[in-house]
Amino acid sequence: MVNNRVPSVFSKTYVTPRRPLKKHVLIKRSVKLLVSCSPLEEKDPKRLFEGNALLRRLISWNVALQTQVFKAGLAKSIHHARILIRQRHIRVRKQVVNIPSFIVRLDSGKHIDFSLKSPFGGGRPGRVKRKNLRKGQGGGATNDEEED
Questions:
Q1: 0.70 cut: is pTM over it?
Q2: Residue 143 covered by a domain
Q3: Please, are residues 25 and 15 in contact by the beta-carbon 8 Å criterion?
Q4: What is the pLDDT of residues 42-97, one digit of tens each?
Q5: Distance between CA atoms of 24 and 30, rounded to whole angstroms?
Q6: How far apart are CA 115 and CA 122, in angstroms?
Q7: Half-sphere exposure of 136 (CA within 13 A, CB side)
Q8: How far is CA 135 from the centre of its chain?
Q9: What is the pLDDT of residue 10?
């Protein structure tokens, strides 16, 4: 009996970066760009365009939103920051963002705050708080008063 299967290849031909947003990776990419631009003539449009973009990138370091939320003190830990972002409690300027790896420019860092609709930002209270408020209003007496 003849097997007509094509042999499959199990090895990847590429490697994804483990931490693509770390500064040393960004610096390596920037240096690569710089090296590719330097042999060109000064007035070459590619060098002018990419060189300016590189300088802008080096000057204003971009950081992931998750890190910025933690450093701003809005979250107790980096993990808590990730959860707050995924649950749509965080906004950058007026835009609610739910992607923890969202790249935030340094000048936008001071505009990170709780969403207006979030219970943390002055919005409607959460499910448990509303339930406790209703229980407190409807019963009339709390547990401490009933024991007397």
A1: no
A2: no
A3: no
A4: 677 777 677 677 766 666 666 789 999 999 999 999 999 999 999 999 999 999 99
A5: 10
A6: 8
A7: 7
A8: 38
A9: 75
Based on the domain organization, do 44 and 87 belong to the same domain? Answer: no
Q: Domain count for the chain, please give it.
A: 2
Both 80 and 115 in a single domain? yes
Is residue 122 over pLDDT 80? yes
Tokens of 16: 């994804």
Q: Packing angle between helix 45-59 and helix 23-37, nearest 10 degrees?
A: 160
Domain that holds residue 77: 65-128
**Token pair of 128 as six digits:** 């448990």
Q: Across-strand partners of 90?
A: 114
Which one of 59, 81, 104 terminates a domain?
59
Q: How confident is the model at residue 148 (pLDDT cuts 50, 70, 90)?
A: very low
- pLDDT tens digits along 98-110: 999 888 877 788 8
Does a structural domain hold residue 70?
Answer: yes
Residues 67 and 84: their CA atoms lie apart, in Å, by 12
Chain position carrying tokens 């448990």: 128
Q: How would you label 18-29 residue by residue, b for 16+ Cβ within 10 Å and e otherwise?
A: eeeeeeeeeeee
Q: Is residue 140 part of a domain?
A: no
CATH classification of the domain holding 121: 3.10.290.10
Which amino acid is residue 80, in one-letter code?
Answer: H
